[in-house]
Amino acid sequence: MAIPDFQSFFIPVLHATADGKEHSSSEIREKLAATLNLSSDDLDQKLPSGTQTVFANRVTWSTVYLTKAGALKRPRRGIFQITDRGRQLLSQYPNRFTKQALSCIQSSSPSAKVSWKKVQSKKRRPTTYSFLRTQPGRRRRI
After folding, report:
1. Which of 37, 66, 98, 116 is the most exposed place for a label (fewest CB within 10 A)?
2. Domains in the chain, ordered, with CATH?
3. Coil, helix or strand for 53?
4. What is the pLDDT of residue 93?
């Protein structure tokens, strides 16, 4: 069986944390691997970079999106806990939902902390001009 895309992990991640307790990333991955009946070959499949497994990468991205949408909270690094919004998502979408559904929920929530818009860096480039004197008292930029 091929490993599903990260959006397919939204519901299983919420089910894995549905008891309301704090769960580590590795604990969530173990629960999902058992729930989805993934073979050891599937779990050992690496990304093209060779640094991480495909399974761990996709579970991590699903937790990132769920945390940004407010469905999970991170009490500390690597620890996740379901929120009321996560329970609401489980009742509204029992089978599957996508990141577009998360962005709709995010935009309709006034208490949302994280914006989905990409934040652009406000670094200033140093302004350097070379000036030539063309006439006395006048300068021209080049």
Report:
1. 37
2. 6-108 (1.10.10.10)
3. strand
4. 87
Helix (H, G, I), strand (E, B) or coil at 76: strand
Dist CA 93 CA 97 (whole Å): 6
* Secondary structure (3-state) at 46: strand
- 81 beta partners: 73
What are the per-10-residue average pLDDT scores of the chain (142 residues)?
87 94 96 90 91 94 93 95 93 85 62 47 53 55 56
- Residue 2, pLDDT score: 82
29 burial type by CB count under 10 A (0-12 exposed, 13-18 middle, 19+ buried): buried
Exposure of 85 in the CB half-sphere (CA atoms within 13 A): 20
